Amino acid sequence: MPALTIRKLSDALIITDLQNDFCKGGTLEVPLADQIVEPINKILPLFPFVVSTQDWHPPNHISFKAQGGPWPPHCVRETHGAGLHPGLNQKEIDLRIYKGEFPDREAYSGFQETRLAHELKKRDITRVFIVGLTTNYCVKETAQDALKHGFTTVVLTDLIRAVNLRPEDEKHTLEKLARQGIRLASAILFCSGTGGNPG
Ligand code: VGL
Ligand code: ZN
Question: Pocket of ligand 1, candidates 108, 145, 177: which has the most ligand atoms within 8 Å of its Cβ, to mutate?
């Protein structure tokens, strides 16, 4: 097997929603989210192009319980909770994408009503690696949209965390993504170059 072909100019890393409100002490805390920050920092320099996405909601967003939505208020634009985790090495981020900005529409995917696909395509990026929060919402929908836009799509499964409304959500989500043609790989193996070529 030849050496892995990671770190091509046509690769990008997408860090989804690694925001304070989804991390320890946040209003929509995801269990063990903080654990993925340092390992993400380690792989950032491997990628020629790094994108972050941020949930960026108005205070009256449709997804909040007060408006009949499923979630407590979270990631209200311009607030501390909407900021990226302070441990994330933001110097490595080349493009920041904000989503969920309209009061009346949910947007879990980083591609939804943003310029993300355009920005990737204009750089001739053909493959995206996805890490971040949350497995069963933003990671899932961002991966599905990446595939729809024609990118080879890899989810690094050890660098994502789920908001587990039901205990099986994480497992079911990953099985579904794999069936749809999204590749699942481990950052520990893949990014160290010792195994697991997702193609
Ligand atoms: C998300 C719940 C609510 C996510 C966003 O980014 O996965 N989850 N809003
Ligand atoms: Zn949200």
Answer: 108
